[in-house]
Amino acid sequence: MYDIIIIGAGPGGYVAAERAGKLGKSVLIIEKEDLGGVCLNRGCIPTKTLLNSSKLFKQAKNSAPYGVHTENASFDWKEAMAWKSEVVDIQRSGVSFLMNENKVEVLKGLAQVLEGKKVSVDGKIYEGENIIISTGSTPFVPPVPGADGPSVVTSREILELKNLPASLAVIGGGVIGMEFASLFSNLGIKVDVIEMMDEIIPMMDKDHARVMRRDMKGIYFHLSSQLLKIEGSRLSYLFDGKEESLETEIVLMAVGRRPNTTELDKIGLDIDKGRIVVNERMQTNLPGIYAVGDVTGLSMLAHSASRMGEVAVNNICGKVDRMRYNAIPWAVYTSPEAAGCGMTEAEAIADGRNVKTASVLMKHNGRFLAEHSKTAVGSCKVVVDAETEILLGVHLIGGISSELVAGAAAMIESELRVNEIKEIIFPHPSLSEVIRDAVWAIV
Description:
- The protein has helices at residues 13-22, 37-42, 44-61, 77-101, 175-186, 206-215, 302-316, 345-350, 366-371, 401-413, 418-422, 433-440; strands at 2-7, 27-31, 104-108, 111-114, 118-121, 124-133, 137-139, 152-153, 167-171, 190-194, 219-222, 225-231, 234-239, 242-247, 250-253, 257-259, 271-272, 275-276, 289-291, 330-332, 338-342, 355-361, 379-385, 391-397.
- It is of the alpha/beta class.
């Protein structure tokens, strides 16, 4: 009998296991593939590794304004893939070390949850006082003709390509789709993005989304377009009531992910629209059974999963904790990079709030100008409640936006007011100053 059995060793599962182990709980974590889950092995980490390689190549070709001259810069896909694999291996070893360090028992196999807080793996039954389900999600492939063709890949298969394609069509302009579009475009490959909505990356400030599209000059965007069918190297889509088509070597399906809840309804779990229903303590409708991460469908981000895992463990161990969603940062590691936290201006207005906003351009920041061309895009926009002066949202595009947004998250989580943020001292010269400058620009 274990104190906690965790199913799935992604960022929700392994962080929960580490935290529970530190608290002296007996923990069994079960993973059918590799420690680290999709994020480490087939998502966040390998994608960002390849994106960095592509950005270095792009920088090398455009480094003359900084006094750095490169001749015949070239990109070797096989070498980049080898580095990607090495990074994944190192990170996976790190997770294994954490499990050993915290006395977490690791079992590889396909788990089946049974009634009575029991789990079956290869015919053997394991019992736990508590169970945390962290089974993640899988890419969703829309039911269109030809979607199962040889030229169609998901985010999993595209990370194992042996050779670079001559062209790529990305179905879906969300985070995953845009990151792969940016990666291959940086390498000089023709990329088309087909998106059903009227704008890319739905959680992004609309002004920033338009800036991103304009700056990605090597990518052809087909907004308000619906994929109809795929026939060999030709795909057809509907735009403004007319059928259009284009030729491409590879089609990447990036229209979203679906929670992995197969057979979980058989034990009586409350599953709504394919996701496990949980409360703010990550408890399901069954006593002693918790769910965290993508399988809940609430916030399908690796860092959200990790925090959910911590919340579940804390509540199991008698510490009252709850999951909050108002200050979860997001980041898109494209070229240019973008990130945000809290409400956009449109969301705040839709919520019935009277808001004030201000934006500053990053090119007015000393460090940004020193490290980027004079034409590089970048800005920071803040959204403030006009009545309380509380910071509601921070939205960034350009530079190292993903590294700045954690500071914004702390401000929003703490419900800091404009005058309180003005008193915070930021290092100079640093790009982080754009947040302070934007707050000072609030009238």
